[in-house]
Amino acid sequence: MIIDRYVTQVCALATLGATAAITLLLSTFGFLEELAETDAAYTFWDACWFLLQTLPRRVDELLIYGVLVGYLLALGKLAEAGELTALRTAGMSPSRLMLSLAPSLLMWIVISLSLSEWLAPLGERWAVADKIQAKQAAPAAQTTTAGLWLKDEGLFMQVGSMSPSGELTGVTQYWLDDEGKLLETVIAETAQYDATIGQWTLIAGEAIQFSDITTDARRILREPFRSRQWSSNITPNMIADQAYVDPAKMSMLALVRQVQFFQGQNLSDTAFQLALWNRITRPLMLVCLAYLALAAVLGPLRQTGIGLRLSAALMVGLGLRYLQDLTGLTAYLFAVPAALAAAVPIACAGGSAHWLLKRDA
């Protein structure tokens, strides 16, 4: 339908412009922060490269605000020109108008999923790894993980660094029994992972075993080794995700892997659960924000100017962000289910839109 194509074009262009403007503004602040960290090792061009690599993540995070601002401005423009009034007079209900927004919404949902599941996690991992490498002037083959700690059942392990190929360097393992008593310490120069059999090989190290002689004395046995096999559910991807990428910046696949692993180890997975449900419900949030923009333009913002609409969009966007942070905090402190915490901001946005339409019906 011609009307649907016209509405789609106007809303898509407005959202694109709003997202680009917000991204440019906040990226400028981010770039200034990076410049404050530059030194002899981390140069101006390193900061530029970091900004470019993290750009997909920034666009993905700000797309929600871009949709809210863009749809408010686009629909407001239609209202100012009398086109929205003409459509309503012709018998188009708010539900039918919302259907006209569906093509552009679908486009932004696809873009968001493409960024969050592919470009953003990869770019974020590479950016953080390159930044640490540049600052510490590490060899090109290695990227430090800043002494990452991992747990796998009775094993506590520290990793010094990890190469792009997944090889670990500076591995120290502490093996404990069910009572928490140290049984063995394994120190290895490197560790290599064989994905075909799901097994690690520790190379060039020493195993230090502790055995009880009496209740008050222990015997220490040292055994050097060239290679030693180690089977574990820990994979290079899991280590890279934990070392370089914040849970909120991981892909859904990586989050599912982390949740399964943490649950298997009886560790708290709240951060990963919350990030996973926020990612799952993001398309619904985009729909609710477009619905809220439509309800606001048909209601209280019908006769207002662009300045007030822009201010309202920014206030609502910040309010939803603070509400999301608050519900996330309740999930940590009061064991609120992550799905419920992620659903509250969406319910508030959708409920507010429905109330505005009912009030002005």
Describe the structure.
By secondary structure, this protein is α+β, with helices and mostly antiparallel strands. It has 2 domains: 2-136 and 262-359, no CATH class; 143-244, no CATH class. The chain is built from 12 helices and 6 strands. It has helices at residues 2-36, 44-53, 55-80, 83-89, 94-100, 102-136, 236-244, 252-264, 270-280, 282-298, 306-334, 338-359, and strands spanning 143-152, 155-162, 168-176, 182-194, 199-212, 218-231. Strands 1-2-3-4-5-6 form a 6-stranded antiparallel beta sheet. A hairpin with a 5-residue loop joins strand 3 (168-176) and strand 4 (182-194). Helix 1 (2-36) packs antiparallel against helix 2 (44-53), helix 3 (55-80) crosses helix 11 (306-334) and helix 9 packs parallel to helix 12 (338-359).
Question: Which helices and strands appear, and what pairs or packs with what?
Answer:
Layout: H1 2-36, H2 44-53, H3 55-80, H4 83-89, H5 94-100, H6 102-136, E1 143-152, E2 155-162, E3 168-176, E4 182-194, E5 199-212, E6 218-231, H7 236-244, H8 252-264, H9 270-280, H10 282-298, H11 306-334, H12 338-359
Antiparallel strand pairs: 1-2, 2-3, 3-4, 4-5, 5-6
Helix pairs in contact: 1-2, 1-3, 1-6, 2-6, 3-6, 3-10, 3-11, 6-10, 8-9, 9-12, 10-12, 11-12
